[in-house]
């Protein structure tokens, strides 16, 4: 049985600043929803693909706009926590499609779509351990996918390899040690290019817009470095918590994992296997040090991604805990976590570090190659929060300095705004999404 020294945990936590977890301060506020339609269980939907006819900049569907916002009931919350992304979209009266794309290294990816014929496509890419549900889970009044659709966009949501919607591989007999042998490097090198090509092929558009949260941002910059031709296919990239440079990382878990450089076997044990376990020992070891006694009974404190990235109790509606829990921990490889752990405290944005000998075999160099951010020629707008353990202002500014076409670097107007507030804050629409949509209209 693996035992983590309490002294080591104490030392690591002593260097962290978990201020976002300090006090319980719930705000109870009604969140809007639209009258429910019958839920369709099938993942296959017969919808017309987009044509190439022009579309107005802002289009509001009469059938949807006539539905007056009401409020989530307890029943709605419990039901929505159990619905898939497509079922959520259909429940609130929006069209939905499911598309599949194969990567060149054999992974079969699922993309969810809220289609609008002839409109400009926008690709939304979720963060670590999340899924396409992160863009729709808070309903039509706060979910970015809905808001973009209502503004006249053709909305695509990728599920990156390894999450619950993208588990298949062309080789069904691939052992776990090989299937889960990927980090955000492979997502940027294989998943994103395949998805961009599929969208362009389906819509006939020459370019798309891209919005990424957390790892969805990291992988984009990997794509531009490793597959530079794809930067020209993205007219605008908006990065919600860039998570590229982590020199000022404040995550206790990443600081702890960063101590085990080269100890891959032990790290795999800590994370519960090649796939991150929902019951990794790190949750039990760290949540009691991060969650106060008054918060310790919340199911949020048992979710690994929040243990890693922090949680802003000040901006969260406690009544929505079942929805957040139901769409959390959607799948990730241990190597994804370890790659981020390697980045913390470093000045470099680089490929996975296998250690000197293996680096020589793989890279012909003792050190991993750096990603070339000068190849990210797309227009890029960065957004960061002061309460984000993985996104300080200095790290965002460093990224801005390396990007050739950074058109903005915006601090969210809330001192406690944390990593996952970009998708679950009760104020995310006014603090973030209104700005994001305004930027979309300019490109």
UniProtKB/TrEMBL annotation:
Keyword Signal: yes
Top-level taxon in the UniProt lineage: Eukaryota
Molecular functions per Gene Ontology: hydrolase activity, acting on ester bonds
Signal peptide (from-to): 1-22
SUPFAM superfamilies (UniProt xref): alpha/beta-Hydrolases
Domain (AB hydrolase-1): residue spans on this chain: 121-413
Pfam families documented for this protein: Abhydrolase_1
Protein keywords: Glycoprotein, Hydrolase, Lipid degradation, Lipid metabolism, Signal
Residues annotated as catalytic: 214 (nucleophile), 388 (charge relay system), 419 (charge relay system)
GO process terms (BP): lipid catabolic process
Entry similarity comment: Belongs to the AB hydrolase superfamily. Lipase family.
Name by which UniProt lists this protein: Lipase 1-like
Native species: Drosophila kikkawai (Fruit fly)
Source taxonomy: Eukaryota, Metazoa, Ecdysozoa, Arthropoda, Hexapoda
Gene expressing this chain: LOC108076928
């Amino acid at each position: 049985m693996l035992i983590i020294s309490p002294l080591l945990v104490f030392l690591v936590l002593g260097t962290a600043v978990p201020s976002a977890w300090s006090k319980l301060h719930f705000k109870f506020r009604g969140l809007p929803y639209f009258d429910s339609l019958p839920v369709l269980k099938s993942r296959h939907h017969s919808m017309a693909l987009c044509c190439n006819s022009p579309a107005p900049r802002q289009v509001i569907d009469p059938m949807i706009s006539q539905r007056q916002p009401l409020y989530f009931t307890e029943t709605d919350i419990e039901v929505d926590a159990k619905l898939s992304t497509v079922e959520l979209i259909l429940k609130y009266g929006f069209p939905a499609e499911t598309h599949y794309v194969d990567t060149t290294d054999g992974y079969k990816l699922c993309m969810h779509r809220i289609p609008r014929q002839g409109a400009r496509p926008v690709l939304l890419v979720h963060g670590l351990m999340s899924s396409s549900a992160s863009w729709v889970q808070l309903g039509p009044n706060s979910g970015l996918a809905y808001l973009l659709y209502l503004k006249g966009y053709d909305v695509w949501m990728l599920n990156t390899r390894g999450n619950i919607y993208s588990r298949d591989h062309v080789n069904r007999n691939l052992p776990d040690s090989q299937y889960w042998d990927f980090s955000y490097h492979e997502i940027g090198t294989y998943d994103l290019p395949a998805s961009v090509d599929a969208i362009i092929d389906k819509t006939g558009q020459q370019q798309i817009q891209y919005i990424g949260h957390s790892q969805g941002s990291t992988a984009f910059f990997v794509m531009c470095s490793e597959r530079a031709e794809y930067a020209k296919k993205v007219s605008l990239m908006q990065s919600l918590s860039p998570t590229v440079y982590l020199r000022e990382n404040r995550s206790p878990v990443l600081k702890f994992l960063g101590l085990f450089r080269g100890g891959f076997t032990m790290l795999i044990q800590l994370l519960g296997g090649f796939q991150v376990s929902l019951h990794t020992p790190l949750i039990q070891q760290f949540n009691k040090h991060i969650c106060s006694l008054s918060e310790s009974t919340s199911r949020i404190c048992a979710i690994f991604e929040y243990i890693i990235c922090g949680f802003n109790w000040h901006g969260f509606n406690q009544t929505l805990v079942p929805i957040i829990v139901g769409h959390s921990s959607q799948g990730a490889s241990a190597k994804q976590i370890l790659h981020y752990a390697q980045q913390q405290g470093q000045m470099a944005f680089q490929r996975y570090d296998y250690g000197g000998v293996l680096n020589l075999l793989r890279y012909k160099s003792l050190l991993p190659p750096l990603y070339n951010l000068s190849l990210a020629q797309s227009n890029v707008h960065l957004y960061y929060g002061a309460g984000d353990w993985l996104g300080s202002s200095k790290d965002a500014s460093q990224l801005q300095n390396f990007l050739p076409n950074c058109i903005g670097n915006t601090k969210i107007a809330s001192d406690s705004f944390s990593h996952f507030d970009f998708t679950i804050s009760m104020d995310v629409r006014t603090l973030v999404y209104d700005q994001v949509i305004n930027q979309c209209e300019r490109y």
